[in-house]
Amino acid sequence: MLENKLIMRLLKGNFAVCRLDNTETIPSWSKNGEFFSITKTSEELSIVCAEENIPNGIKCEKHWKVIKIEGPLDFSLIGILASISTTLAQKDISIFVISTYDTDYILVKSKDIDNTINALLSEGHEIRA
């Protein structure tokens, strides 16, 4: 699929995916740390942030690790996420993806991070800490 091998970086720490009501304002706790992502739709306010920042009582799925594809990636590139998701799907690893203007971030459960790294390395990608 993907001919060029990618350079990726494992972000430090554990992350969580939170769900808040779509009428809530963006909480200040969500914006602390090296990485966070906020998406608002007509149904929800979804926040990905450092696990340690989340107060008690917030609906969330914890224990995620984040792998950043080093960018910037050109919009004309084809098959990056397809290649990665296929590789990980073949190893029964579920992913959650966040895309930005410059690059993509692959989230995997903490319990799957070693298998994820091994699978990506076996495809010739480089993973940096």
UniProtKB/TrEMBL annotation:
Boundaries of every A9CJY8-like N-terminal domain copy: 13-56
Pfam families, alphabetized: A9CJY8-like_N (PF21631), ACT_7 (PF13840)
Gene3D superfamilies hit by this protein: VC0802-like
InterPro entries: A9CJY8-like_N, ACT-like_dom_sf, CASTOR_ACT_dom, CASTOR_mTORC1, UCP008459
Annotated CASTOR ACT domain residues: 60-120
Record PANTHER family: CASTOR ACT DOMAIN-CONTAINING PROTEIN, CHROMOSOME 1, WHOLE GENOME SHOTGUN SEQUENCE
Annotated protein name in UniProt: Uncharacterized protein
Species in which this protein is naturally found: Clostridium liquoris
